[in-house]
Design goal:
Glutaredoxin; seven-stranded mixed beta sheet; 42% helix
Length: 156
């Protein structure tokens, strides 16, 4: 009986912890530190896109989403947050790149790679869709047209 109670207790700990969203300090494009949990607070869906300036598929994905993002916002209220995984050597490229793009979403940098470790991200682009503080979908990689799949997930 003790073993069953212990196993049930461990199961509950792992189930609850798997659903928790980690917190981390990010840096916005003005150099201000912000809490990840603060920027994802929303009763609407939130897309988190992990990207880097050197990642061509990441750029293609964000460019494709950028074209339809205003429509997505109008129809679903979704919020897109792009979190750069650039290291100190390439971080200086972020702001000029973002200024040259027509991206109408929030950009942050995971300067200590806290979120990368917390979400166990092995490769980018990597995307999470969060609703009501819970991860409802994860995606790794990008292929042209996959933004339509993302939109279907957001609508549902």
């Amino acid at each position: 009986m003790k073993k069953i109670i212990l196993l049930f207790g461990l199961f509950m700990v792992f189930s609850v912890s798997a659903q928790n969203i980690p917190d981390a300090q990010l840096v916005d494009m003005k150099g201000n530190k912000v809490s990840f949990k603060d920027i994802i607070k929303s009763d609407k869906p939130v897309i988190i896109s992990f990207w880097a300036t050197w990642c061509v598929p990441c750029m293609n994905e964000l460019d494709a989403i950028s074209e339809v993002y205003p429509d997505w916002q109008e129809e679903t209220g979704v919020k897109l947050i792009a979190i750069s995984q650039d290291d100190d050597r390439t971080a200086r490229r972020i702001l000029p790149l973002v200024n040259g793009k027509d991206w109408d979403f929030e950009i942050y940098r995971d300067y200590n790679f806290e979120l990368k470790r917390a979400f166990n991200i092995a490769s980018i682009p990597f995307m999470l869709i969060i609703k009501d503080g819970k991860i409802v979908a994860k995606r790794s990689g990008y292929t042209p047209g996959s933004e339509d799949e993302i939109y279907e997930i957001i609508k549902n």
